[in-house]
Amino acid sequence: MRRLSLSRLLPWLVVPTIACSTSAPIPLTSAGHFGASAPGKVRRAPCCMRAGMLQGEASAGVQWQHEWARGAVIYQLFVRSFSDSDGDGHGDFNGATAKLDYLNDGNTETTTDLGVDGIWLMPIHPSPSYHGYDVANYEAINPQYGTMADFERFVSEAHKRGIRVIMDFVINHTSAQHPWFLDAATGPKARYRDWYVWSATPRDWVQPWEGGKGPVWHERNGAYFYAAFLREMPDLNHRNPEVRARMREVAGFWLSRGIDGLRVDGSRYLIETGSNAEHGGQRDTLETHAYWRDFSSYVRSVKPDAVLVGENWVQPERAGTAILASYYGSTTSVAGGDQLSMSFNFPLSARLLGGVKDGAAGPIIDKLKDMRDLYPAGVTDAPFLANHDMPRIATVLGGDRRRLRAAAAVLLTLPGSIYLYYGEELGLQDGAPDAEDRDKRTPMPWTGGTTGGFTTGSPWYGFSPDHRRINVASEARDRRSLHNWYKTLIATHKAVRALREGS
Ligand SMILES: [Ca+2]
Ligand SMILES: [Ca+2]
User: How far is the CA of 267 from the centre of ligand 2 (A)?
Assistant: First the structure.
């Protein structure tokens, strides 16, 4: 086991606002994996994980082959807000394809591109919402984003440049407009009735997260359906073998079209067994872990080099990290974990933001220690600063360039698959403070012009403030811009094996 000292690493990168409060080394295993014991040896884990392992250990599966993901830099892209090719004001696949060279031109000699290794596409399917997290047809492309041929060309052009493409897989629930739900809601004898979760009587459960107060049982035609998030997003019944088979089919449909991985939305909430208040049964259930073990085994069987990235949104404390650890599952029969191959590191994100804001590395180091103690050996982490559901980092840090540079430097020296949120590399802020989610998802400013080089028409939503200064064209020209700092950090991350692999 080699040792990597964060306090030695950071000054080398000239991080101006971080003051290390401790010089304690962060032990990592030789391949930069978290966990101090040998691969294959199961470390401390929550009881739900150990119980789940018994079943997983019985069936040795196909191994993951996604070594590419370790140290990869992946760019979260909202198609609607990235680039519009036809002037209707909504970003689309042809627009995104035209901008691929900005992300990675596939030529290692050039320094004009960001140099990312992958893209995470937020939902791309037909949906009644602008964001698409309520899918109305899992095997089609949102017509506002283009055609299936446009999508396939995007993936093929990305692959030509060495960019992998991960897509959002919204599996916990469908849209209330999905034909399955429209049928299910007609009555108890409907063909798709059992594809959703029904109760003849109302129940007083609430949303299963900290501070969750919203109701989750909603009346429709004299019965009550379960929806963890919103009435418009009814939960699928993943206990139903037909639903399980159908969602595997959906995953296979996209993996066979070149998709390199799935980002699974709401992955803690798949199968509910009782009220959260009384039984903790609306999240992290044994049944949910068993589901991911089965699903993971299926994905490995059809595309072993794919990744499964979980949105397990947990609290920043050590207990939250223990929950993330449990979603890797067992590493005994499957190296890297027999459930989700990684989870977004929400606890670390909170510590990164807090640490950079306060100029203190201690909370970050403490979290890295939690991970070392709790993660199974040999797994890959998925660190990030912020995503589409969180205030943008530039907003949190009040646009402070020194702190933004520090945040980027810490992020891009962490081991794991590193996720950037589009516009983060520019210092893009939210459209309005404390405003609605759309303000976290504003159009990408390519230039300082009225339509920002995003569209020739009228953008579907307003730009974030100051886009005449904060845009790709002007930052590309400025040697000292945040954009150029990101490019330098990504290039360094790729060139230095110790940064890429953490050892
Ligand atoms: Ca368009
Ligand atoms: Ca569910």
Answer: 9
pLDDT digits (tens, 9 = 90+) for 290-333: 999 999 999 999 999 999 999 999 999 999 999 999 999 999 99
Whether residue 271 is predicted with pLDDT greater than 70 in this model: the reply is yes
CA–CA gap between residue 196 and residue 235 (Å, rounded): 6
- pLDDT tens column, 28-75: 333 334 443 333 333 333 333 333 333 334 344 799 999 999 999 999
Check whether domain 3-172+236-501 has CATH 3.40.1190.20, yes or no: no
Closest to 281 (Cα-Cα) out of 290, 289, 291, 271: 271
Active-site residue, selected from the candidate residues 84, 232, 311, 425: 311
Q: How far is the CA of 121 from the centre of ligand 2 (A)?
A: 22
For residue 427, the CA-to-ligand 1 centroid distance in Å is 25
Which of the ligands is closest to the CA of residue 225? 2
CATH of domain 175-235: 3.90.400.10
Ligand 1 centroid vs 457 CA: distance in angstroms? 9
When comparing pLDDT for 495 and 143, which is higher? 143
Residue 123 is predicted with a pLDDT of 98
CA of 454 to the centre of ligand 1 (A): 10
Q: Which ligand is nearest to the CA of 273?
A: 2
Q: Which ligand is nearest to the CA of 96?
A: 1
Ligand nearest to the CA of 235: 2
Per-domain residue ranges of the chain: 3-172+236-501, 175-235
**Taking the C-alpha atoms of 220, 223, 227 and 228 in order, what is their torsion angle to the nearest 10 degrees?**
140
* Residue tagged active-site, from 92, 105, 265, 439: 265
Residues 34/375, Cβ–Cβ less than 8 Å: yes
CA 217 – CA 364 distance, rounded (Å): 39
User: Could you read off the pLDDT of 381-424 as tens digits, one per residue?
Assistant: 999 999 999 999 999 999 999 999 999 999 999 999 999 999 99
Q: Is 101 a catalytic residue?
A: no
478 is catalytic: no
Strands 164-169 and 198-199: unpaired
Q: Which residues contact 73 (CB under 8 A, 6 or more apart)?
A: 115, 116, 117, 118, 412, 417, 418, 420, 490, 493, 494
- According to the model, what pLDDT value does residue 279 have? 82
The whole-model pTM stands at 0.89
Return the structure tokens found at 372.
């070392």
